[in-house]
Design a protein that fits this description.
The complex is a heterodimer of chains A (158) and B (136). Chain A has seven helices and seven strands, in the order βαβαβββαββαααα. Chain A is an alpha+beta fold and 158 residues long. In chain A, the strands form two sheets. Chain A has a five-stranded mixed beta sheet. Chain A has a two-stranded antiparallel ribbon with strand order 6-7. In chain A, strand 6 and strand 7 form a beta hairpin. The two termini of chain A are 30 Å apart. Chain B folds into two domains: 80 residues, Arc Repressor Mutant, subunit A; 47 residues. Helix content of chain B is 68%, strand content 9%. In chain B, helix 1 crosses helix 4. Classes of the chains: A alpha+beta (158), B mainly alpha (136). Chains A and B meet through helix 1, strand 6, helix 5, helix 6 and helix 7 of A and helix 1, helix 4, helix 5 and helix 6 of B.
Chain lengths: 158, 136
Amino acid sequence: MIIGGYALPFYGRIRTTVAVNVAVAIKTGEQLNRLLDLLQSADFDPTIKSPNNPLILVVDRKEKVEIELWLKPDGIVFDDENLRRRQKVRLDANTLAWVVSAEDFIVNKLARPDRGVTDEQDVKSVLVRQENKLDKQYLERRAREAGVLAILQTIKAL
Amino acid sequence: MSSDQRAQILEAAASTASGVRDLTRTLKWKTSNVVGLLRKMNEEQLIEIKQVAGSKRGRPRKSVTCTPLGFEFLETYRKLRTKPLRARKEDLDHAAKDAAYASRLVANGHSPFQIFMELNTIARNIKVSSQTSETV
């Protein structure tokens, strides 16, 4: 499912971004190999490819775009609830894709070890635009589990 | 199992080489909970549980130590906990205004993702052309 800047326009503000971030629930080396084969057959070039590494970098040879595949995205727990809450969205006339839920998007942004001003602004924009649509209990629980509840409450209050 | 619980166990294990009983006493949690959490963290390679050679009487004593991955987890957790808000109030106000603008676009029947893609393409083209002119 899509996470990060490409998921943002569905929930918050509209801003430019370079990186395409995708969360992939892969647990075994076999699953990883299958994904890598699929990517290579579609003209994508995976660079770092270990199941122990939380991130796989993939270069789209045709479009020259870099895609980050996150096996362990910060603050996101791949479980039934997380997958049930993701949203199916239309990217263009022919493409449908899964996008992380607004609540998990917020927690992922705040749990980044390199969290910066832009991430906090993204979170604020989602809190504002999704004000009445967010599942506040779920958001608080996930934020608490990721250790970012205090920062979330600060952003909410400001 | 939350990051907070993991960090509390790692903090306790890192401060002294502890046995399961010492950890239960320090954390003031139920023994069954602590044992379950330790088993999970051992699987995650955040801690190492070793049997301690010593007294031959009673149940063998086990010591819990932090692994390098455990120390790394703890360090990142501490950084996150202490990391203050980076954005200023004006930055967040600006983001709130942007969000209101996106809401208006949706209300008027526009697709925010389509607008985002158009904006992103323009920005990418500018970047590519500036890189090309630098090379020339």
